[in-house]
Specification:
The protein is α+β, with helices and mostly antiparallel strands. It contains 4 helices and 8 strands, in the order βααββββαβαββ. β7 and β8 form a beta hairpin.
C-alpha cells in the first residue's frame, strides 16, 4: 500500500540515498549536488518528491521545467526502493507529478530512458502510464545505448 506522496525535505536525504543505492538509478553521492538548488533556492522550479511508507521515503522523483518552453516539464529521475517495487509506488508517483503539473497549468511531461535491454521494464512502465514513444536518438548515452523519449499531454 502506497503511503503519502509529498515534496522532498532536507531531512529525507539519508533515506533517499538508500533508495538510490537500492534502485541503482545513479550513485547516491551525486544527490547532494543535484538537489542543492531545490533545497536552497525558494525560486527553484524543480520538483523533488517522494512516497513515504512507515515514516520513511521509499522512492524519489525529480522533475524540471524544460528551458525555452511553455508548460513543458521533463521527469529526469524516478526510482523506487527494491523492497517496494511492484506495489504500485511508481504508478502513484507518476499520478502525483502529473496531477501537480496539470494543476499548475503545465501542458506536457517528457520522460527519457535508455534503449538497453535492461530498461525494457522501464519502457513498458511508461507506456502503461499512458506515455507515447516519440523519439529514439541512436547512441545518445554511449555507443550502443540509445535514448528513448516518451511524451504525455497533461492538459485535455
Amino acid at each position: 500500500m502506497v503511503g503519502q506522496i509529498r515534496k522532498v525535505e532536507e531531512t529525507d536525504i539519508p533515506e533517499l540515498k538508500k533508495v538510490l543505492d537500492s534502485s541503482e538509478l545513479f550513485p547516491p553521492y551525486l544527490l547532494d549536488d543535484m538537489i542543492g538548488d531545490y533545497l536552497g533556492n525558494k525560486e527553484s522550479t524543480d520538483i523533488w518528491f517522494t512516497a513515504i511508507e512507515k515514516g520513511k521515503p521509499v522512492s524519489i522523483g525529480y522533475c524540471g521545467q524544460e528551458r525555452l518552453t511553455e508548460g513543458t516539464y521533463n521527469l529526469y529521475a524516478i526510482a523506487v526502493h527494491k523492497s517496494q517495487q511492484g506495489k504500485g509506488v511508481g504508478k502513484k508517483m507518476m499520478e502525483y507529478i502529473e496531477h501537480r503539473l496539470r494543476k499548475n497549468g503545465n501542458r506536457i511531461l517528457i520522460v527519457e530512458t535508455s534503449g538497453k535491454s535492461e530498461f525494457e521494464l522501464t519502457r513498458k512502465f511508461y507506456i502503461k502510464c499512458g506515455y507515447i514513444k516519440q523519439a529514439v536518438i541512436p547512441e545518445f548515452y554511449e555507443e550502443g545505448d540509445d535514448k528513448i523519449v516518451f511524451w504525455k499531454k497533461l492538459k485535455i
